[in-house]
Amino acid sequence: MNSNLEFEKPIRELENKINELKGFAKDNSLDLTHEIDILSNKLENMKREVYENLSPWQKVKLARLQERPTSLDYIKKLITDFTQLHGDRYFGNDRAIIAGIGMFEGIPVTVIGQQKGKDLDENIRRNFGMPHPEGYRKALRLMEQAAKFNRPIITFVDTPGAYPGLGAEERGQGEAIAVNLMTMSRLKTPIISVVIGEGGSGGALALGVADRVCMLENSIYSVISPEGLSSILWKDSNLAPVAADIMKLTAQDLMSLKVIDTIIKEPLGGAHKDLDITANNMKQYILGELKELRKLTHNELLDRRYKKLRSIGVYEQV
């Protein structure tokens, strides 16, 4: 799949030149191996130069990329015997949140993830990954069930934010998110949260109160979108790239601020370049953390989670 990211344009142009040269050599029975190798080396150097020096705004674009793997993609790679469960037992089923039970490396787990679409039709069905209150209540139902049966919880965060529509507000969007925050802080079972794309505001945080919070290398996590911030501060959404620079929303920024626990490496160019590598890196991290968390008593688990949450934002005044 080819993205339309502007900063990738030189890379795409060089890739096209290499492919044209290979085709020309094949059609004319010519040995152009040396020339192709030179261009291929140039391409690899160009990729490293571009992808290892992305600006915050470029990472926002990459995190939002439609080709980027979704929660279901990772569930298919990591979870065996996955059984999806539906509905909040109050209003209905929200397709923006995928939730169910399955096996992770022999460990029974509950998995909950925000789900975007792969195309326009699916995005409409999934509400572009923006959950309604019933989605968060479905997640809450499964999390409480997980604690009852002592199953660890794995959440995948990928949303621009909770849906702000009139119906969602009427059905208690704010209350649903608040209850999730409170309940997750008290659940007596390990929780690992992975930001795989966008982590937008309270809509993301409703699945993000966890013992371990990690982010994929090119994901973002913030209280508001860059467009929203620039509209509020400067009355101009076109200044979103400037806003992204000051928001500290990248995985690297949040790691330095100790908001998250680790950064999961992606293939050069993004998770969509090689899902298997990304999923394997994620698996190794989750497995290692689960082994440690499952050794803790319930009281130890809750005490450490409390201290972790209280330590976010602590600073020394000089």
TrEMBL record:
Entry's localization field: Cytoplasm
GO cellular component assignments: acetyl-CoA carboxylase complex
InterPro entries: Acetyl_CoA_COase_a_su, ClpP/crotonase-like_dom_sf, COA_CT_C
Pathway in which the depicted protein is active: Lipid metabolism; malonyl-CoA biosynthesis; malonyl-CoA from acetyl-CoA: step 1/1
Any GO MF annotation of the entry: carboxyl- or carbamoyltransferase activity
Domain CoA carboxyltransferase C-terminal: 38-292
Keywords: ATP-binding, Cytoplasm, Fatty acid biosynthesis, Fatty acid metabolism, Lipid biosynthesis, Lipid metabolism, Nucleotide-binding, Transferase
Enzyme Commission code(s) on record: 2.1.3.15
Known function: Component of the acetyl coenzyme A carboxylase (ACC) complex. First, biotin carboxylase catalyzes the carboxylation of biotin on its carrier protein (BCCP) and then the CO(2) group is transferred by the carboxyltransferase to acetyl-CoA to form malonyl-CoA.
Protein name listed in UniProt: Acetyl-coenzyme A carboxylase carboxyl transferase subunit alpha
Organism: Serpentinicella alkaliphila
